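Hi there. Long-time user, first ticket. I'm pasting a complex I've been working with (about 1139 residues overall). I'd like to know whether the download I got is complete or cut off, because the file seemed smaller than I expected. Thanks.
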Amino acid sequence: MRQQASESYSALEIALQGQVRVPYGDGSKLTEIGLDSLAIVRIVVAASPDSEQEIDVSSLAGVSTVGELRAWLAESAIGGETI
Amino acid sequence: MTADTTAPPVEETTGRTIVWTAPVTESQAGLLVVERSVPTANLYNVLAELRLDPGYTAADVRSAMAAVLAVQPNLRLSLLEDPEPHAALGVPPPDDDLPLVQETVEGSIEERRDEVVRELAETAFDTSRAPLIRAHHLRSAAGDDSRFVFVVHHTVFDGFSLQPMAKDFDSALLGRLDTEAVRPAREHALLHELRAQHKAEGSSRVEKNASEIGRLVRQVPATTIYPRPERSKETRFQGRRRTVSLGAQVSEAVDRACARWSVTPFEFFSAVYGAVLARHTGQRRVVFGSPLLSRRTVGSYDLCGFFVNTLPVVLDVDWDAEFAHYLREAVQPEARKVRSRSSVPFSRVVRYADPDRGTNRNPVFSVMLAMQDSTSVALGGAVTGIREHAPGTAKFDLWLGVTPTPEGWLLEVDHDLELVPDPVAQAVARSLHGAVASAATADSIKLRDLFADESLRLSRTTDGYGLEPPYADLDAWLRNTAEHRADAVAVEESDRSMNYRQLNREVDRVCAGLRRRGVGSGDVVGLAADSLVETVVAVMSVLRVGGLYLPLDRTLPTERLSYMLAKADCRIIIGQHGVGGLPAVPLDSLAEDTSAEPSGTEGAGGYVMFTSGSTGQPKGVAMPNGPLLNLTAWQIEALGMSARTRFLQYAPLGFDVSFQEIVPTLAAGGTVISREPADRRDLPAVVRRVVESAATHVYLPAAALRPFAQAVSDADAGLEHVEYVCVSGEQLILDPLVERFFARRPGIELINLYGPTETHAVTTHRLSSDRDGWRTHTPIGLPISGVTAQVVDDTGHLAPLGVPGEMMLGGRCTADGYVDDEAKTAERFVPDPHGSPGSVRYRTGDKVLWSDTGALIFLGRDDEQVKIRGFRVELGELESAVLSHPSVAEAAAAVRGEGADRHLLLFIRSADSGGDGAQDEISSLLKDTLPAYMMPAAVLPVAEIPKTGNGKVDRQALLGRADDLMNRWARQREEDAAPASDDPLQSRLLRLWSELLSRSDLTVDRSLLESGAHSLTVLNAVSRIEQQEGVRLAILDVFGNPTVRDLAALIRRAEQ
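Hi, the file is complete. Here it is re-exported in full:
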């Protein structure tokens, strides 16, 4: 699991860098770096290696910074469910 | 779930080879139910186009489509209902059996594409027969253009599906799609997603959220664009799309604004859309639906499919709030809350919302905002462009799609052509464009300032009639006409008449008398003359000396008349009888020898008319000469008035309509005809008078039109001389009887006029039998010449078409104000920012809108002013009157019923907890202080006057209890009253009147007039008595004998 979370982390970096053209850090607000909700979902999907993994996009509504997105993804990978 | 991907394909009754079956999602089931319940088979079609690299051949494209069908299992789903709703996955069709038409286009490919889009839009899918897609591939003959146009059913394809579809098509054309490997993975992914969807649907969190959303939606009134009366409840779902291109500059400003305020584009556009909807519905709280992505598994993001839940977004709009504040504090939290509930199926919300099903529209919201996926494609690919096309249908009254495109944000507005006609949709699109630009570019802006004035030109449009007044004032005009028409009859009563020479001489003589008594310019003269001739002489005399005539109706309570005289500073009354403690001067005594005196030339007189006032006393409106001159000039042309005109003088002098009957007729050189001997309430007698006097013009209260038409029909009168029937006073409601009346008399035009006392008649709408467009709720039309009618919406701007707002009247129509009431005058007569410098507009308090064809439609009032049979009543005046009784602690008046049945109710809370012992005293008090038309049908004691959340009297709650209270009150009256009659005729009459007046407390000796009978109910009663007893009573006999015992005696005498 830890390894899976770590993979997600680096996949997230790749996905973020593919979408975001401005400098950003953990405190950057997603809206300020040009990410709308669909773009965030696409990043999450791109950062999730397991196609069977369930992601609850409704819980992304409360995610507003890059740091929170990282945390959400890590949590999701660990706590995420495979049906 | 019955799916088993390892099982061999099975043959089902459809004859298709089935890979697996699975239950449909709740969202899919909901969509299927909605689709089955509407008559439009193509309502849920999605239309789109992929632009292809033209280097690919027709065969390449056919293979690519086959490959896409192979790897997109949703495009191979059939949706079946037996034994329960389920989806069946079929095997991919062979290349030669694809639902694909291919053609080479010789001419314009765009034109052919548009034709194909229209053809495909008509596709009626049978959702039980896959594949639910039809495609058309167009390739130009020159080989330089290639388009793949397709229609697909929404149950298997949401907005997000376009990108996976385009991506697969691209890969297939490029030869990079490994169909053999991808197909089983995708079929598995779909099955996996369906399982996840079902699991989510069953969660308690979804149930709880659905219940909360349902409860919220129940409390929100429908968000109705173009909320006109007679708005259709059913629609044929025909739609049209209007595109709003923001352009690069505004699009970039939107992106910058989103970053600056840390909001998503969805939040930004929701905020603007919410404000636009609030403006265009006239509501502060709006609700719109928004589709939310509800895919649950990572693998599903490669699939086409229907994985969205549409949920309501509810926004409260405060016009004085800063946009940024509203966006951050109201919209963003709401948008986040809605997104956090994206797992809730729409059908579950509907279950909890329990909405009104009296329409075939979406039951929860009628407007939508859809954030669309990007239409961008990778450079250098085989698919070079994506575009979604308008379906030509409208699932919602209004749908806004927001799409990020390489050129910037694209806004598309789909509208239902019946409910939101083109001109209204165009206005919405303009508001949207302006508001987006203002919100994105202004650092700080109030919500109301997102919008601009819209209907300035319309507010200055007139009905096309009217002359420039040929004289400087009314008197000059009247003198001139009198000179040229000296021997013609000016005023005609049943037994005498007066020609223009006599009239002019008499007016000069009375003016001399008035001047001798010190009456001059601006002085108020009370009029209480007995006959029409005397009245006309008096009116003209006051106009000539430059005074203001004040009509005095002697049937009004003395207290009220005294107040009017004092308020208007009236020191002289012309007539036979004193009024309100002031002695009258008979016309004969005023008329003096004028041979020694020059005729005066003041000439610029007007009138003062009193109208109900909310503070407990009537308000006197001072109308000067200028507006009346303009009205006269308009009316003479608009109503075809000339020396031939014979205008029936029907209205009481205290109604401004009486001016229109008398003065323009005299200016035109026609004849003013007395209504008498017919009583105003006796419409059959009025009809006889119209016939025998050969009247050409009749002007009635709107509520009297139907009884008038009925009386004409009963008398079988042709009314050959009548050219115009005018009505005003309240909303004109047409019915088949009235329409037949005019259809059979094609020479008569019906003119609906509107205008408060503060301005006189200002707008008109005319109907003739040879024109279409007779609507039950008749428009009030367009302003007369010289008048501007502005509709000011909640934002404070001139309202676009279809937007409710307050009617403000300017130009040559406004009164000088209220006599002796500067504060009230300043409140209602306000500077007109759209008029010439120093000009004034009158705030009517009437709610109106411009129709899509540019006619004004009256919607009602928000305040406490009501109309009872054409009489204007301020509820506050009635309440104030009863509060002067010491036993009444609190009072609330309300109006109940429609048309001729409309009546006032007065609810009182007693100061003494013991109750309602002072009923008789209260009735006497009201009779002594109020005119008869303001008398309530019942005074109902209540323990408490209910209040709304903001502390106002809750009249709706009181009216909700009215039936119970009325029954209790009637029972009490019955107990107090004498027992019902043993006489069979009296019993029948009691029953008849009880039904007509909706009262069960009538007795044989109680006055029917005091029990609520009025001219219209009396007319009805006479007709029913004739049917029931075979005796035709005269209406005046009923007024003269207003008890059941008297009526029975009358009938018996007639029978003998």
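A couple of notes from our side: Chain B has 31 helices and 41 strands. The longest helix of chain B spans residues 179-201.
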